[in-house]
Amino acid sequence: MGQSFLEIEGLNKGFGGLRAVNNVGFSMGRDEVLGLIGPNGAGKTTILRLITAILKPDSGRIRFKGKKIVGRKTWDIVNLGIACTFQNMRPFRRLPIIANVMVPCLSPRAMKRGEWVKKVEAKAMDALEFAGISDMALEKASTLSQGDLKRLEVARAVATEPELLLLDEPFGGLSPAETDLMAKSMHRLHKGGRFGRLHSEGPAMIIVEHKLQQLMKIVDRIIVLNFGTIIADGKPQEVVKQPEVIRAYLGEGGI
Ligand SMILES: Nc1ncnc2c1ncn2[C@@H]1O[C@H](COP(=O)(O)OP(=O)(O)OP(=O)(O)O)[C@@H](O)[C@H]1O
Ligand SMILES: [Mg+2]
Question: What domains are defined for the chain?
Answer without folding.
Answer: 6-250 (3.40.50.300)
